[in-house]
Amino acid sequence: MQSLSSIRRDVRALVQSRAYAQLDAYYADLEQQDWADTENPGAPYFEAANSGTLFDYSTVSYQDASDFLQAWIAACPDSYHAQLVMGNFCYGRAADIRGYGWADSVTQDRWLGAALACESSAAALLQAMALSPRPIAACVTMMQLAAHFKEPYWLRALFTGNPPATLTHDDIEEEGLMDAALAHLASVGVPRLAQAPQALPAWLAPRAEHEMEQAKDYWLLRALELRPGHLGALTAYAQYLQPRWGGSYEDIDGMASGPLCAALTEPQRNAIRWIGIYDSLDSYPEPDDTEAVDEYGRIFESFLARELRPTERGMALGYYAQFASYSLQDQARARALHGQSVAAFGPNEYFAQVDGPFRSFAHVSIIHHQPDDDGAFKRVLERMCGWDQVATAHALAAVAHQFGRWGFAQDPARAQQLLDRAAVLAADQMDDDFNVLAAAAMLWDGGDHEQGYFLSRQLADRRVPDAACSMYDIHRGFRDNTPDSYLDNEVRDQWLARAVEDGSPLAKYNMAHRNIFDGEMDFSRRENLDRVLWLLQGAREEPRAEALARLRIGVLLRDHGTEQEQQEGVRAYLRPLVEEDDDWRAGRASAEIALAYTHGRGAKKNRFAAIEWAQHACRLQPDDEDIEDIQAQVMNSHSLVKTIGTVFGAYLGRGGVSAEDLPPKPAAQ
Fold first, then answer.
1. Which residues touch 153 (CB under 8 Å, ≥6 apart)?
2. 630: domain range?
3. pTM for the model
């Protein structure tokens, strides 16, 4: 079967021309090729049936994708693949609605929105199952849906012989919850299921009682009935035997050694085992943890001694290389293992994610200057650019073409083409640790200042998020070992203004900080106060600046706001910071509250409360000079007579405060 990148190009051309019948025939041919594949069934066919293969989501909206899929279904009502891709699309959007944090961080409106998307997904998948004699891919997605979320209530009702019904407003007691969930559904282009299917596909077997609760088992068995030992179905199922899903590594190994996998070859069974082994290596040990380092080394060597397919050997060698770089601190060995990893993978194969071995390979090449004598790093960049999906690879390949690095021919025109595509892809990949800006920073940190600056500037010119901030950091000398030739205050300020214009939360904080502390802004003018408050509120979108922004907002409102805003600054912004785990922020907020009670801004004027807050701040941060200065203001400590008078007056005024006016009591030792 052709590569996924080749399939992607073909189907996107058919999507562009809206050639529904040809698209259907193309997928039917892919499915037939997959059916004939005994070595690796499911790959890349399963991936090809995901909507991301048909649509470039860096330029196509979810709504446009949904509209096309619905048009495909309308044009080809008997199409198995149209329903399959729609089911996969809705399942993927359910995951987007839920988000990717821990379950306890997901709000009820998002859980409900995901459930509605799962209803639409399950209905499309059931329809797909009724349209094909071998709907293995539809069964696998249904298995994943059941494991990742839960089956829709109406689907369970169909199996138990009860009337099926979709979720409605009447099912949800909390006011506004369903409307919020429907808004999530609309935001990702998922059509709401109007009516639940009234019957199951005739070929589906009845469900045993235990299969009602273990739905993923039922759907796996349906896939294996259609094709025993289907590797794609088995590997998808094994993912849900990991500890994070309530399973164990023993469960995965037991599955690989058990009857479900009896028809597999030993390399295929080891593909199942790799899922557990990889998951167990969640973080590499520190170099000085000799026992753990030795144990990790034994795990890699033991696995690599087995019979392996090219995919698992390439992956294991890549992670072994990353381990060698980090835990063994042996960069030459890491580079050799990276080269072996690239050679082991099949044609056009490599790690899809930029974080992990690819980042490690770049690190040993750029930071540790390991030469690319075997051309492995060049081949990796070429493969990943061929996928046309990975911004960081495009960015590094652009640098390679601009400067003739890693064996690439110097070709500035090609570099510009790659940068244009990198900028488009980067918009949805900034959450990756090794994103395009991290690649530029790595070049800089490796001593390649010209190359790092080139990439940063090119990305900033294309308005890649936060690239202007990188330029600001370079020109203000924030980066380590910045040559004097890059320091330029005028250019620095231009890039900061550009970053704010681009909407960068971090830039908004930096601009607000400058306006507050450079002494040039008159906050008695309301427009100036509102401007800086706007910057700080925008800065709260950046996790690194969120708490500091709240601190600055609280102080600004206390000092320059209306009487009501002064109270809001103390109560809504400063007080919550006192309860946080960060001692610096809690200490500084406590000191600022002390000033509020000292001057009667945002709190009633009371010396006793002010002194209590100042002392609390000093307990949290005993060596902080700024906090000590605030304590001195509160205590009038520049004058012994005034200090004594302040303390005595505070003692007399302590009856005028309540518990709400005082800081938290120190924790018992």
1. 165, 167
2. 581-661
3. 0.87
